[in-house]
């Protein structure tokens, strides 16, 4: 147990500001405020260095699917560190944890997936996707097929290829986009469909049609693949209309284009099936996996390679000049094995699909009566509320007001980790949550919405 004082918090904050460059952070701003120091965790709760208990409604960073403190994962890491802490999988060598994990992944993923390529993270997974799909088309004698289509406001990582696939302007402005990656608009009904009085289903077909328009603009003979998250996570938990993904599949099939499902967030039970593509009823050629594969206890990512691509790589491709020191890291693989077995043992995927996911949806839907809430969406253990200025007219706040950040500050101050994406407040809590814990989270969310509303009135912004 930590015995920490305000003094040690200040020392940590000072050292942090002095030496530590954080991801996606305004460093000067953070140095002025001081970082919050998280010192321990258990189940769905965190504690900071001041002793405050916080409900972690974001599962760390969308990854701690089984919750904190799970002994089987801790034991697996300890055992593997003693047995074989590292060996590579280059140069005709392999080891039991990587082999057993590859075998288990072939069982829990959809049937077209019999092979996995391991990486260290989701970003490396998507870099691997870019190299692998281009290699596939080379092998198939269509080297002109280089272009990969993704979506604005999608998120696929922060390496050069990952950030290029991502559709985030703020990232593209800092470092550009690698050649032959292009984007289409996201299937966001609230922004694009609702103002035109389109039903969600009709809008879903139109939004998928933007892919076909782009394919024809680029030239089908130049298009290699389409990549998307089944439910966009970092973009704001954007749950697409039910018609969207099947139509995307139809269009990819029509032009022979590879379909890639980025399952870094949606994988390993979060949407109520093992993988988000199953919830969306599509059959991708490739899947990016990470995060929930180890519940974030240690870093691991990978690409599930469907038979269409695997056969070309294996039977016709010769050497694929790609790989990482940590491809199939034994400790990470041992933890992933323990994690997946625990998900199976606790029947967590069914828990999300049949119990806690529907309960979260029901409790989230109740937020629709709040004066600040314009739209509520959820899918499995992911949820979003769109804050609006005028509920009746569905008018959004001016972005400069940063109302989402204001709400997030109230969450921070009231023991709740909830994320703000613009004015969309989102959660993705651990899958092990109980109904009582969902109730506890919802009470905190409602309190923070009320506090935000009161502050907006006080500032005369409403
Ligand atoms: N794809 C998706 C859908 C993600 O959400 C993320 C990370 N949030 C990534 C890829 C990148 O994963 P990593 O941060 O492990 O590189």
TrEMBL record:
<dbReference type="Pfam" id="PF00202">
    <property type="entry name" value="Aminotran_3"/>
</dbReference>
<keyword id="KW-0808">Transferase</keyword>
<keyword id="KW-0663">Pyridoxal phosphate</keyword>
<dbReference type="InterPro" id="IPR005814">
    <property type="entry name" value="Aminotrans_3"/>
</dbReference>
<protein>
    <submittedName>
        <fullName>Aspartate aminotransferase family protein</fullName>
    </submittedName>
</protein>
<comment type="similarity">
    <text>Belongs to the class-III pyridoxal-phosphate-dependent aminotransferase family.</text>
</comment>
<dbReference type="InterPro" id="IPR049704">
    <property type="entry name" value="Aminotrans_3_PPA_site"/>
</dbReference>
<dbReference type="InterPro" id="IPR015424">
    <property type="entry name" value="PyrdxlP-dep_Trfase"/>
</dbReference>
<dbReference type="GO" id="GO:0008483">
    <property type="term" value="F:transaminase activity"/>
</dbReference>
<dbReference type="InterPro" id="IPR015422">
    <property type="entry name" value="PyrdxlP-dep_Trfase_small"/>
</dbReference>
<keyword id="KW-0032">Aminotransferase</keyword>
<dbReference type="InterPro" id="IPR015421">
    <property type="entry name" value="PyrdxlP-dep_Trfase_major"/>
</dbReference>
């Amino acid at each position: 147990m930590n015995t920490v004082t305000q003094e040690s918090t200040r020392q940590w904050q000072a050292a942090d500001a002095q030496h530590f460059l954080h991801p996606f952070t305004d460093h000067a701003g953070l140095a002025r405020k001081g970082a919050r120091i998280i010192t321990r965790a258990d189940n769905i709760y965190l504690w900071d260095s001041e002793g405050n208990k916080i409900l972690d409604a974001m599962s760390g960073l969308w990854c701690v699917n089984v919750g904190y403190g799970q002994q089987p994962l801790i034991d697996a890491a300890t055992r593997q560190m003693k047995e074989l802490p590292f060996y590579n999988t280059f140069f005709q060598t392999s080891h039991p944890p990587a082999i057993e994990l590859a075998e288990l992944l072939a069982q829990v993923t959809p049937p077209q997936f019999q092979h996995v390529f391991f990486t260290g993270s989701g970003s490396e997974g998507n870099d691997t996707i870019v190299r692998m799909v281009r290699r596939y088309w080379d092998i198939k004698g269509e080297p002109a097929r280089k272009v990969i289509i993704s979506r604005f406001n999608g998120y696929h990582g922060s390496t050069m290829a990952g950030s290029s696939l991502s559709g985030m302007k703020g990232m593209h402005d800092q470092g550009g986009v690698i050649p032959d990656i292009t984007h289409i608009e996201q299937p966001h009904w609230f922004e694009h469909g609702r103002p035109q009085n389109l039903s969600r289903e009709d809008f879903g077909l139109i939004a998928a049609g933007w892919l076909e328009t782009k394919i024809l603009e680029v030239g089908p003979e130049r298009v290699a693949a389409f990549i998307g998250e089944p439910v966009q996570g970092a973009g704001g938990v954007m749950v697409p209309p039910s018609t969207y993904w099947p139509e995307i599949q139809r269009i990819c099939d029509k032009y022979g284009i590879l379909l890639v499902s980025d399952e870094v967030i949606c994988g390993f039970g979060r949407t109520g099936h093992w993988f988000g593509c199953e919830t969306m009823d599509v059959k991708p050629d490739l899947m990016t996996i990470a995060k929930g594969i180890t519940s974030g206890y240690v870093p691991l990512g990978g690409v599930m390679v469907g038979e269409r691509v695997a056969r070309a790589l294996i039977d016709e491709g010769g050497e694929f000049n790609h790989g990482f020191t940590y491809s199939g890291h034994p400790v990470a693989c041992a933890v992933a094995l323990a994690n997946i077995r625990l998900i199976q043992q606790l029947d967590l995927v069914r828990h999300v699909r049949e119990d806690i996911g529907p309960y979260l949806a029901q409790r989230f839907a109740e937020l629709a009566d709040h004066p600040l809430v314009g739209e509520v969406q959820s899918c499995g253990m992911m949820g979003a509320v769109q804050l609006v200025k005028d509920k009746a007219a569905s008018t959004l706040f001016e972005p400069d007001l940063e109302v989402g950040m204001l709400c997030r500050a109230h969450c921070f101050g009231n023991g709740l980790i909830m994320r703000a994406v613009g004015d969309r407040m989102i959660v993705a809590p651990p899958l092990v949550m109980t109904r009582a814990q969902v109730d506890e989270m919802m009470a905190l969310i409602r309190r923070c919405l009320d506090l935000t509303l009161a502050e907006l009135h006080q500032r005369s912004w409403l």
